[in-house]
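About this split. The held-out portion is used to measure sequence recovery: a designer receives only the structure tokens and must propose an amino acid at every position. Recovery is the fraction of positions where the proposal matches the reference. Here is one held-out target exactly as it appears in the evaluation file.
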């Protein structure tokens, strides 16, 4: 089975699955009220280590919805909150671990 990502914006959780098997749960930050994280089904289309503009932390994984992604943060205190412009923020060590386990093309399902 293929790996896929389930994101709950209400629970501030990102879950990594391999088919039906849960591999790991990560705490995340999501979009604030004025710039909510978009719900829907997307795929990871690119990855970039040390992206420009320190706000993305150590790694960026772009989603098939333009301008949205899963990325690290230079503000670890923001994890667990609704603070981003719609992106999914993770601790830097978590986004590096996740990136190593999911290839480009991985499905991402985002819901409340």
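Reference sequence for scoring:
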């Amino acid at each position: 089975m293929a790996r896929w990502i389930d994101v709950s914006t209400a629970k501030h959780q990102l879950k990594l699955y391999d088919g039906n098997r849960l591999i790991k749960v990560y705490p995340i930050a999501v979009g604030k009220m004025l710039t909510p994280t978009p719900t829907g089904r997307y795929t990871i289309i690119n990855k970039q280590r040390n992206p420009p503009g320190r706000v993305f932390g150590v790694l960026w994984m772009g989603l098939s919805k333009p301008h949205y992604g899963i990325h690290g943060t230079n503000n670890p205190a923001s994890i667990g909150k609704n603070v981003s412009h719609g992106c999914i923020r993770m601790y830097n060590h978590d986004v590096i671990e996740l990136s190593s386990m999911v290839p480009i093309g991985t499905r991402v399902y985002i819901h409340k």
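Annotator remark: The longest strand covers residues 40-49.
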